[in-house]
Design goal:
single chain, mainly beta, Double-stranded beta-helix, 19 strands
Length: 227
C-alpha cells in the first residue's frame, strides 16, 4: 500500500492499494475512492470489541474497503477538523495509545481496543484524557490530530505534564495518570482546569495545539443564551 498526505490545515490521505489489499475506517471518514473499492460494514472482531470501541468514543462498526478485480484501487480519508494527519507504522509489540476520535483509518491488520488509565478514580473526572484507544497488530495507521502536532521523545523516568485534552498520542512504552492541580486556589482561580495528565517515559509523545473541545468551549461563549 502506498499513500500520500495532501493539504495543510484540512489534510487528506490518499491510499493506493494493490488487488486484495484492505483498509478499515470508522465514522464515515471515506472521502472518495475508485469504482473497484468494495465496502463491507463489520464488527471487526466480534460484538465484544465493537462495544469496546463504542466505549472509547468510536463507532461500534467499522467499514472495510477492499480493492477488487485484481487491479489497483484508490481511496481517500479526510480529516474532520483543522489539524494534521500522522502516518504511523504499527508493529507487534509496539503499541500506540491514541486519543478517542484520533483514529482515521488503517490497513486491515491493525486492531483497535479501549485503553484505560491505571488510576480509575482520577480518570473518571479527568475529562478527555480518561478513555483512549490502543492500536496494536501490524500495518500502517493514519491518525488525525487537532491543530499543530508537537513531538517529544521522553527518556526512562522523564515526565511531561499536559493539560487535559492536549495529549494526542503516545507510544505504548509510556505510562500516564491524571492528577489534580495542587492547591484549592489554583483549582478555582487558576483558569487552567482541575486536572492535568502526567506522561512518563520512555517513549514518544505527540501533543496537539488546538483540541476541538477547547474550540467548542470558546465558540459556546458567543452563542445566544436563549433568554
Amino acid at each position: 500500500m502506498r499513500y500520500e498526505i495532501k493539504g495543510d490545515t484540512l489534510p487528506v490521505v490518499v491510499c493506493y492499494l494493490e488487488g486484495g489489499e484492505q483498509m478499515i475506517t470508522e465514522r464515515g471518514s471515506m472521502s472518495w475512492m475508485s469504482p473497484n473499492m468494495k465496502m463491507e460494514t463489520t464488527t471487526n472482531g466480534g460484538i465484544g470489541k465493537a462495544f469496546g470501541r463504542m466505549f472509547s468514543g468510536e463507532a461500534m462498526f467499522q467499514n472495510r474497503y477492499t480493492a477488487m478485480g485484481g487491479g489497483n484501487g484508490m481511496i481517500a480519508f479526510a480529516s474532520s477538523f483543522p489539524g494534521q494527519i500522522l502516518a504511523r507504522q504499527i508493529v507487534p509489540g509496539q503499541e500506540l495509545i491514541v486519543q478517542k476520535t484520533g483514529f482515521l483509518a488503517s490497513e486491515a491488520g491493525v486492531s483497535l481496543s479501549v485503553y484505560f488509565q491505571k488510576k480509575l478514580g482520577a480518570g473518571i473526572f479527568g475529562g478527555e484524557g480518561f478513555i483512549m484507544q490502543r492500536l496494536s497488530g501490524s500495518g500502517m495507521a493514519f491518525l488525525e490530530f487537532d491543530g499543530h502536532v508537537v513531538q517529544y521523545d521522553l527518556q526512562p523516568g522523564q515526565q511531561i505534564i499536559v493539560d487535559t485534552g492536549y495529549l494526542a498520542a503516545m507510544e505504548g512504552s509510556c505510562s500516564m495518570e491524571v492528577q489534580t492541580v495542587p492547591g484549592l486556589k489554583n483549582m478555582v482561580f487558576g483558569g487552567e482546569g482541575v486536572f492535568n495528565t502526567v506522561v512518563t517515559g520512555p517513549g514518544r509523545v505527540w501533543l496537539q495545539t488546538m483540541p476541538i473541545s477547547n474550540v467548542a468551549g470558546e465558540i459556546l461563549k458567543f452563542m445566544p443564551s436563549g433568554k
